[in-house]
Design a protein that fits this description.
The protein has 528 residues and is mostly helical. The protein has 21 helices and no strands. The longest helix is centred in the C-terminal third of the chain and has 40 residues.
């Protein structure tokens, strides 16, 4: 066994190769999160999936992912973070191959849930390994900025690759593309990712693990089913109540447990809690807005899957440009000001996204999406550093899991809440459709996809009239729904401005690290 000092020196010397490998690992998650959105209309036509089934394809993955994050992060801290990463990559690749071959909406929902299990071990582990590899605060912030920026590569590749694959090979290919990425990441992880763990400081806590899984699953399931089954129905209220009881029990157990899986006292630190709340609200708005935007591009504007992917890509480009740049701005202006400025860009661009006049014009639409990406780049890197920098490195896995759980939980809630608002408004706006027969009326009122499908079957003047009514109802509903998204982001702005510390403790505001400095330092270390 190598001497601890020699092992630490080797890890430090290879840290930029480690960062590159972790960025590739995170790319597969980014690709998967966005590539499915482009394929949704094709899945509707091929598998005859309903609107609620489409939501479950997205949120079924999110539920499993979010529910297992805390447990996966804790297991990685205890048994080895590289081991957890390799397990997650292998499982994610295998289940992606399975998802590409299913023949029904139900089986695709199951496959997405299985993929969520693998993703739960990949996403938090990359950030915890990064935190334990880059020990110096400024360099860690720089590495997180690069990590966050490169994660935008997956967000960019997803829509572009998805659009091209759907047009050439069908919707199943959007899952098969994960296999070669996972394979390459597995090979590089064995070569460049060091094994780190903190077994003594990461005790097993089975009761907390089970309670957190049941609690999050119950609440998320209830929230997701609310739009379809009604918020006052027993199938919705019961899981929400059960989930809330288990989460309260989880918190009480962790408070009194001398060796907790998640020390809830971390939330007393405003740097940790305000950052978590900010990212939850922001991702709630983002996930819900993206779910609608891909349908708008393809159903109303008639864009091909590839062109719809191109329209989503500027968000990722903006993230890639702004994320590595953010740490230098934080050192100069402080965390609070940088995060709030990013959130303001997100709020403005989200409001513009609800305008058909803006988004139907190619140039303005691309610019709006790019500004949104800049906002996310300025927000996510500093917020992530606030969460990770407020915890000891021995608990990096659980800290990363909290960071990711807030994003995924916020995203699921955002899709559900905004889906509810949109569905209610759409059905109210489209009216009773008295000009249709009883057999066509129910299907036509469900969603824009089923409305257009029904119009295609009817044809003639009646079909054309239904298309016009459905398009008008969609645009009206989109404006209302995007207003809700803007309000979510404004709430995040208020939380960040009121509670997020202006500067991380011990950080000198006069020091400035810029994007070019970070990339230059990384290249120098790799060459050395």
């Amino acid at each position: 066994m190598p001497h601890p000092d020699l092992a630490a020196e080797r890890i430090h010397a290879r840290r930029w190769w480690t960062l590159g490998t972790l960025c590739l690992c995170i790319t597969v998650i980014g690709v998967d999160n966005t590539i499915l959105n482009v394929a949704l209309p094709s899945i509707v036509r091929s598998l005859h999936a309903s609107g609620s089934q489409l939501e479950l394809m997205i949120d079924g993955y999110t539920i499993v992912f979010a529910c297992l994050l805390l447990t996966a992060g804790s297991l990685g801290d205890r048994y080895g973070r590289r081991r957890a990463l390799i397990l997650g990559l292998a499982w994610f690749g295998a289940t992606s191959a399975f998802a590409s071959s299913v023949g029904s909406p139900t089986m695709l929902i199951v496959a997405r849930g299985l993929m969520g299990m693998g993703g739960a071990f990949i996403y938090p582990t990359t950030l915890s390994i990064l935190t334990n590899t880059f020990r110096e605060a400024h360099e860690r912030a720089q590495a997180i900025g690069i990590w966050a920026g490169v994660s935008g590569v997956g967000v960019a590749l997803g829509p572009l690759a998805g659009g091209l694959l759907v047009e050439r090979f069908g919707w199943g290919s959007v899952f098969l593309v994960n296999v070669p990425i996972c394979t390459a990441a597995l090979v590089l992880s064995t070569l460049f990712v060091p094994e780190t763990s903190a077994k003594a400081e990461s005790p097993l806590d089975p009761l907390a693990a089970v309670s957190s899984i049941i609690g999050l699953a119950g609440i998320l399931y209830g929230v997701i089913e609310g739009p379809d089954k009604g918020w006052k129905s027993t199938p919705v209220l019961l899981p929400i109540v059960v989930g809330a009881v288990f989460l309260v029990g989880f918190a009480l157990w962790e408070v009194h447990n001398p060796h907790p899986m998640l020390d809830v006292r971390f939330f007393k630190n405003p740097r940790f809690s305000a950052a978590s709340a900010t990212i939850t609200l922001t991702f709630a708005a983002s996930f819900g807005a993206t779910f609608l935007m891909t349908q708008y591009f393809q159903f109303l504007l008639g864009y091909s899957p590839l062109k719809a992917g191109v329209m989503i890509t500027p968000v990722a480009v903006g993230m890639m440009l702004a994320s590595p740049f953010a740490p230098g701005r934080v050192n100069r202006f402080g965390t609070k000001r940088v995060v709030v400025s990013g959130l303001l860009l997100i709020a403005v661009s989200t409001g513009c996204s609800g305008s058909n006049t803006i988004m139907s014009t190619l140039g303005w639409g691309l610019l709006t999406r790019f500004v949104m990406g800049l906002g996310f780049g300025l927000t996510t890197a500093p917020v992530t550093e606030s969460i990770m920098g407020s915890l000891p490195t021995s608990r990096a896995g659980i800290g990363s899991a909290v960071n990711d759980t807030t994003r995924q939980t916020g995203g699921a809630i955002g899709v559900a809440v905004m889906g509810t608002v949109f569905a209610a408004r759409y059905q109210a706006s489209i009216g009773r459709l008295a000009f249709l027969g009883p057999s066509s009326r129910a299907a036509a009122r469900e969603s824009i996809g089923t409305s257009l499908a029904t119009a295609g079957k009817i044809g003639g003047a009646t079909g054309a009239h239904l298309v016009g009514v459905a398009n008008a109802a969609f645009l009206s509903s989109m404006r209302v729904t995007y207003t809700v998204a803007v309000l979510m982001v404004c709430t995040a702005i208020a939380v960040a401005w009121r509670f997020l510390p202006a500067q991380a403790p011990g950080v000198a505001s006069t020091e400035s690290y810029d994007l070019l400095d970070g990339l230059e330092l990384g290249i120098e270390n790799v060459v050395d």
